[in-house]
Amino acid sequence: MASLIRYKLVFYVPPTALKACKTAIFAAGAGRYPGPGNYTECCFTTLGRGQFRPGDTANPHIGQLKTLQFVDEVKVEILCVGEETARDAVAALKKSHPYEEPAYEVYKLEDF
């Protein structure tokens, strides 16, 4: 049996939008751990502090143009099994996230 290709989606979100983003991403099929336990809605969260400065043409959800902003955010890490699931999870994130441009990363994982 061939190994399943796995990805990790990592994103940052204000605490008030955490539940909506996770719900949308889980509905897209992410957060399922392959194996006999049938685990779903798996993720890891870390509270932190982000910063950004909106440019001249930005439409920020939080803050003002050209002003450095500091915000409490949650870093979320979610497993995605298969490229289609990873792409669907990113699309769900973009639709559910309140920021104009959500910060996210996708990593292809190796199986050792």
From TrEMBL:
InterPro entries for the chain: DUF34/NIF3_sf, N-reg_PII/ATP_PRibTrfase_C
PANTHER family registered for this protein in UniProt: NGG1P INTERACTING FACTOR NIF3, PTHR41774
Coiled-coil region list: none
SUPFAM superfamilies: NIF3 (NGG1p interacting factor 3)-like
Organism: Podospora fimiseda
Protein name: ATP phosphoribosyltransferase
